[in-house]
């Protein structure tokens, strides 16, 4: 037998084996704790290793809602119909009347065939907390089978097992409770306003800077913070520039006191040279008395 022919047969054998393995039910053994958590102030994940298939993950970022991902180690080659089912655990009952369909979608191709948002992830995680086992049921790529004729033999089923879930879930909930108050997109640009002639930070501003400092100190990807100081046009050029600079330093000092690395800051004072509104009205001058802050990551 030629080497080339042998290689072709070997490849064909692997393809045939993959096709057989694909039509299967994937579930973690009951005696294995297959759930794990990763925690930070910005992101909480609750992941489930599924032997022979990949990883299922519940994920929540600061200031956002829960999401669910299913990752396939070998990827999926076709975008087939999928239903998400809330089902009783195998050891309880398999009665079809106890099954509840949560969603019907189409799988994506590639290594992340499932991405769920809105209510479905919450329904799935609640089912697990109650001792039930959500199922992700992929119809095989035979589009000729009518939907009402699809049986378990025509599906590939991923089961999220309850084994080890409760302990990991408790850690996940603790993480969610400790997420920072605001996501990065809401704090990457901020403007701090000041009373006429004042360099003092009011209580509302300090609360805002506290939240900003908490996020920055727990985000290792932040590499620069730009501060620019501004004033209205009341007063002379030099005094306005000095006031703008002092306001800018006040903001920096407060953030440093809250634990932000002083090496992250770049500062530039503009005095009254860059107004964002007319200095002819009190309302316009109030908008010009400001420190602008930009965070980069």
TrEMBL record:
Instruction: Give start-end of the signal peptide.
Output: 1-23
Q: Which UniProt keywords apply?
A: Lipoprotein, Membrane, Signal
Which GO CC terms are listed, alphabetically?
A: membrane
The OmpA-like domain covers which part of the protein? 181-297
Q: Which Pfam families match?
A: MotY_N, OmpA
Which PROSITE patterns does the record cross-reference, listed alphabetically? Answer: OMPA_2 (PS51123)
Q: Which InterPro entries match?
A: Bact_OuterMem_StrucFunc, MotY_N, OmpA-like, OmpA-like_sf
Please state what the protein is called.
OmpA family protein
Originating organism: Candidatus Berkiella cookevillensis
